[in-house]
């Protein structure tokens, strides 16, 4: 039987999504985009999930982007490309709207669509030999608004344009300096650091994490905050998690949060 190209595993409150085409360096197909979106949507609805890790199979690549071999059948003209783009953009929306924090565990290449997925995660942990870029100009392609927006939000329009206009591949240090990644660790420590990061997130109050994700996204919107939005900042004080965290602090013990 053919192995699924997107695999979801669970370890308690931490879920891991694996882009599983190692023989193609985890190059993405339309079916993979749809499967990734479905996996993220399902996990986002799960109350017992507190963190999601996204990674590529193996340690050679997170993903080099879309599989060019599929272009002849799925992206040969504007109509096909539009349908393909709809699948990509629906998944991008699922990643952006996911309630739970998402950590990108990046080994090796993270290029094109792979970089777009990583940019939609909340934290990005990569190895020292990882490489990043968006050389779509070499194919005569344009990165559509929903694909470019996460890069612009993450690193700013100047860096996004640098990647797109030059098509240059950045090493991990330069990617970190430009704000594309959160943390660079030795290659052998990427998996352990990503897991440790996920555990630190999962140990916190899940409601707090969800609020912080929404607040950070809202603050990127230039519209003035409404009175209701300002008021919501204090809803946490009426939660069981706040009472538990406060009691645990006073008792000098680890809190047990329930997400209520």
Name some characteristics of this structure.
260 residues, 2-enoyl-CoA Hydratase, Chain A, domain 1, 2 domains, six-stranded mixed sheet
Your description of this structure?
The protein has 260 residues and is an alpha/beta fold. It folds into two domains: 6-201, 2-enoyl-CoA Hydratase, Chain A, domain 1 (Alpha-Beta Complex), CATH 3.90.226; 205-251, no CATH class. 47% of the residues lie in helices and 16% in strands. It has eleven helices and ten strands. The protein has helices at 30-45, 71-74, 78-97, 113-120, 145-155, 157-166, 172-177, 190-203, 206-219, 227-232, 240-251, and strands at residues 6-11, 14-19, 51-56, 61-63, 102-106, 109-111, 123-127, 131-133, 170-171, 183-185. The protein has a six-stranded mixed β-sheet with strand order 1-2-3-5-7-10, sandwiched between helices. Strand 1 and strand 2 form a beta hairpin. The longest helix is centred in the middle third of the chain and has 20 residues, at 78-97. It starts with 5 loop residues before the first strand and ends in a 9-residue tail after the last helix. The mean pLDDT is 96.
Short description, anyone?
By secondary structure, the chain is α/β, with parallel strands linked by helices.
Topology record:
Layout: E1 6-11, E2 14-19, H1 30-45, E3 51-56, E4 61-63, H2 71-74, H3 78-97, E5 102-106, E6 109-111, H4 113-120, E7 123-127, E8 131-133, H5 145-155, H6 157-166, E9 170-171, H7 172-177, E10 183-185, H8 190-203, H9 206-219, H10 227-232, H11 240-251
Parallel strand pairs: 2-3, 3-5, 4-6, 5-7, 6-8, 7-10
Antiparallel strand pairs: 1-2, 8-9
Helix pairs in contact: 1-3, 4-5, 5-6
């Amino acid at each position: 039987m053919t192995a699924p190209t997107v695999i979801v595993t669970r370890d308690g409150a931490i879920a891991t999504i694996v882009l599983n085409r190692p023989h193609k360096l985890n190059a993405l197909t339309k079916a993979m985009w749809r499967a990734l979106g479905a996996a993220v949507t399902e996990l986002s609805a799960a109350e017992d999930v507190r963190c999601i890790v996204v990674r590529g199979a193996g340690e050679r690549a997170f993903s080099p982007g879309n599989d060019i071999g599929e272009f002849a059948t799925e992206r040969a003209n504007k109509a096909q490309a539009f349908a393909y783009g709809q699948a990509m953009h629906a998944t991008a929306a699922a990643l952006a709207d996911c309630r739970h924090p998402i950590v990108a565990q990046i080994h090796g290449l993270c290029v094109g669509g792979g970089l777009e997925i990583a940019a939609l995660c909340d934290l990005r942990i990569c190895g020292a030999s990882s490489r990043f870029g968006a050389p779509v100009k070499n194919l005569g392609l344009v990165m559509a608004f929903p694909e470019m927006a996460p890069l612009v939000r993450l690193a700013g329009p100047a860096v996004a344009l640098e990647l797109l206009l030059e098509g240059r591949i950045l090493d991990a240090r330069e990617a970190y300096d430009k704000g594309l990644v959160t943390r660079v660790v030795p290659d052998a420590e990427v998996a352990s650091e990503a897991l440790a990061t996920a555990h630190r997130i999962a140990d916190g109050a899940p409601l707090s994490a969800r609020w912080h994700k929404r607040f950070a996204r809202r603050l990127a919107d230039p519209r003035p905050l409404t009175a209701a939005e300002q008021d919501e900042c204090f809803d946490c004080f009426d939660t069981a998690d706040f009472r538990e965290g406060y009691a645990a602090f006073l008792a000098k013990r680890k809190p047990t949060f329930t997400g209520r």
